[in-house]
Design goal:
- InterPro entries: Rossmann-like_a/b/a_fold, Universal_stress_UspA, UspA.
- Belongs to the universal stress protein A family.
- This is UspA domain protein.
- The chain is α/β, with parallel strands linked by helices and 135 residues long.
- The chain is 36% helix and 21% strand.
- The chain contains five helices and five strands.
- The protein is globular.
Length: 135
């Protein structure tokens, strides 16, 4: 079994990271981590509690993983769906956050597109405690 984790340094991705690692341990699955090129160094992400590099954190989990770095794009759903459609992914794990209706119109929704178009189950995880971003 292979679990795809979409990761950018954020509180939502941290929740998804924890869920994906726990699920991989329980199922004996491997992780395919799609990380934005900005996601490798968590120090760049605000509201990320663990500032260590992603590779160091993945190594400590004991879970077998493959890290694929993808360039920052307007619509990251393209990369997530391409990987999910490879036939090797059994589950996609995404972090989600609340958006206003206007925010959804202006920025779209990566999660919504992945949920609707992925050929496998998608689990959306939200942070345990939501702290609104500072403006």
């Amino acid at each position: 079994m292979q679990i795809l984790l979409a990761y950018v340094p954020s509180a939502t991705s941290e929740a998804a990271f924890e869920f994906a690692v726990d699920t991989a341990r329980e199922c004996g699955a491997t992780l395919l981590v799609l990380a934005s090129e900005t996601g490798l160094d968590a120090r760049k992400g605000d509201s990320v509690a663990d500032k260590r590099p992603l590779t160091e954190r993945l190594d400590e989990t004991g879970v077998e993983y493959r890290l694929q770095v993808v360039p920052r794009r307007d619509d990251p759903a393209d990369d997530i769906l391409r990987a999910a459609e490879s036939g090797e992914v059994d589950l996609v794990v995404l972090g989600i956050r609340k958006r206003t209706p206007i925010g959804k119109i202006l920025l779209g929704s990566t999660s919504q597109r992945v949920i609707m178009e992925a050929p496998c189950p998608v689990v959306c995880v939200k942070p345990k405690s939501f702290v609104p971003p500072r403006i």
